[in-house]
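Quality-control log, excerpt.
Job 1 of 2 completed; input and output follow.
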Amino acid sequence: MEFHVWLAFASASIALLLIPGPTVLLILSYAISQGRRVALATVAGVALGDLIAMSHQILRSWSCARAKWSNRDRPPGYSRHRNTTTPNGC
């Protein structure tokens, strides 16, 4: 990779990291308008929501990988279930 391309990429990455996202703006607006207590509750809610979303994605990826692994020795199109070879979305 040429230096000027890398420099452009690094500059764009740093700019995107410095711009606050919608969650940060939400927490700041709650902190300014309603106080520290509400802002901390919002932080806890956002963290819990992120944890649930990440856990769901990890479990879904694991179940899809498990379904594909269990069907590896079967002929194409074979399934114990009706009309599917893997769970929906895999």
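Job 2 of 2 completed; input and output follow.
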Amino acid sequence: MTDQPNDIQSSNTQPSNTEPSNTQKDPDQWVTGEEPMTGAQQSYLTLLAQEAGEEVPESLTKADASKKIDELQERTGRGKDQQ
């Protein structure tokens, strides 16, 4: 009975990465990409835009908001892994 930890570990493994996760998928390919941006996106965009010294339109789609977040993270240095 004590030889079963390997079985438990194997049942907890992550699926193979044959397809990119939603966090890596091109926003233009998102099924919900044309929906209005989420409240979380809008809040984070507001913060990034303030730091970058620009304004963000409030009528962005989820996909456009994601692209803008990527752009502003690059400009402000936010959202990058600390090394």
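Post-run check on job 2. The mean pLDDT is 78.
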